[in-house]
């Protein structure tokens, strides 16, 4: 994650934040265009011979040239840009026009227009509008809009474990702010990657200079949630029970924005797609994902996202009671629960995605310097957390 950014403290204007909450949600456009998967062919076979094929125009003959050049490419893999990052940002960046999602700036836009393939249903091109709608759920790589200093909660009833926290809110920030941590780049270490070991090992040095968009996403489409790769590049993940990696089925309706960064589940998962199976750690001393049964139905996204994150950060996947039980690892010895899933599609869970955003955070840590697993201590990195000064802890706990 990036460690060299400084963020100016802000004065949050209540009126501006309120306006952001009522601007609506971004239309579902991504995972379409050049990312539509055509891996499935509905061809009928008779005596082993196809009776019809996929019509090339329906399969997307115009998609290839959106990103590639056969003889005049500017980067490896025949990319029509000087780098992978530049290519992705040509649509999904601050100056991009071909997607409503600006992952560089962490904000969603409205749609000016769109066209479809000859099949009449698949989106071919999107023209971004000029109106910012709401910030992106995953934050942004260079700027983000988490209201990380304005997080609130209500104190609930007093129970056996103290006062419960309810009605948590992390509002959108009124303006975009520079990120203090980001998954695009960083220190080039997959913290916690590898098996539990009594020999100190903080993680794996990546083979590439930095993470790229396609480290996590498949640009050609794969019918996965957010076109996530079942196994991120260079993670080294392998599990006998999951030879195809961690699969998270896609949703029909896709909304990429949020008006509350504490609400991390996906309410757009249809009720008929909910599941009672979740992926959690096998045990405190074995973080390998294992299929478990939930007493209530949960969304496939929440049921699998922690296991997906820990294909890279292997030793972070921890079940309940890990906070007081020695894992046997010399570095990641006692760990916060990371595989809990609640029964709400808009789940608030003890889960990786509850505390961290995926792309980048603008939270600041002026009073909470915490060392990296290898003992070094940068003072400004927010570790992709959603609230200033490790306030994410107080969103659940009362101290």
UniProtKB/TrEMBL annotation:
Domain Doubled CXXCH motif: 61-94
Name of the featured protein: Cytochrome C family protein
Keywords per UniProt: Signal
Record flagged with keyword Chloroplast: no
Keyword Iron assigned: no
Superkingdom, taxonomy of origin: Bacteria
Signal sequence interval, chain numbering: 1-30
């Amino acid at each position: 994650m990036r460690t060299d950014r400084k963020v100016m403290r802000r004065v949050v204007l209540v009126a501006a934040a309120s306006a952001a909450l009522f601007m609506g949600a971004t239309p579902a456009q991504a995972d379409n265009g050049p990312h539509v998967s055509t891996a499935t062919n509905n061809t009928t076979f008779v005596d082993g011979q196809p009776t019809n094929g996929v019509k090339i125009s329906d399969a997307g003959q115009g998609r290839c040239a959106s990103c590639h050049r056969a003889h005049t490419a500017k980067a490896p893999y025949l990319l029509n840009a000087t780098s992978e990052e530049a290519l992705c940002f040509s649509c999904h960046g601050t100056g991009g026009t071909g997607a409503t999602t600006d992952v560089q700036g962490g904000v969603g836009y409205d749609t000016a227009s769109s066209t479809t393939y000859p099949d009449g249903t698949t989106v071919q091109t999107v023209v971004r509008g000029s109106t910012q709608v709401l910030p992106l759920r995953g934050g942004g790589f260079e700027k983000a809009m988490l209201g990380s200093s304005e997080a609130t909660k209500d104190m609930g009833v007093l129970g056996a474990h103290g006062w419960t926290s309810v009605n948590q809110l992390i509002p959108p920030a009124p303006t975009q702010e520079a990120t203090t941590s980001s998954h695009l780049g960083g220190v080039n270490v997959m913290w916690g990657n590898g098996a539990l070991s009594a020999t100190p090992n903080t993680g794996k040095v990546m083979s590439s200079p930095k993470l790229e968009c396609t480290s996590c996403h498949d640009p050609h489409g794969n019918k996965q949630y957010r076109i996530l790769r079942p196994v991120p590049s260079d993670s080294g993940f392998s599990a006998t029970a999951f030879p195809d990696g961690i699969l998270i089925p896609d949703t029909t309706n896709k909304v990429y924005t949020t008006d509350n960064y504490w609400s991390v589940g996906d309410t757009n998962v249809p009720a008929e797609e909910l599941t009672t199976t979740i992926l959690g750690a096998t045990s405190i001393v074995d973080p390998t994902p294992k299929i478990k049964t939930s007493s209530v139905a949960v969304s496939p996204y929440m049921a699998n996202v922690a296991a997906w994150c820990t294909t890279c950060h292997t030793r972070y996947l921890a079940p309940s009671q890990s906070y007081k039980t020695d894992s046997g690892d010399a570095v990641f010895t006692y760990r916060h629960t990371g595989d809990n899933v609640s029964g709400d599609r808009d789940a608030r869970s003890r889960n990786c995605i509850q505390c961290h955003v995926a792309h980048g955070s603008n939270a600041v840590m002026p009073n909470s310097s915490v060392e990296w697993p290898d003992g070094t201590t940068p003072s400004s990195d927010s570790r992709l957390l959603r609230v200033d000064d490790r306030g994410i802890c107080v969103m659940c706990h009362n101290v």
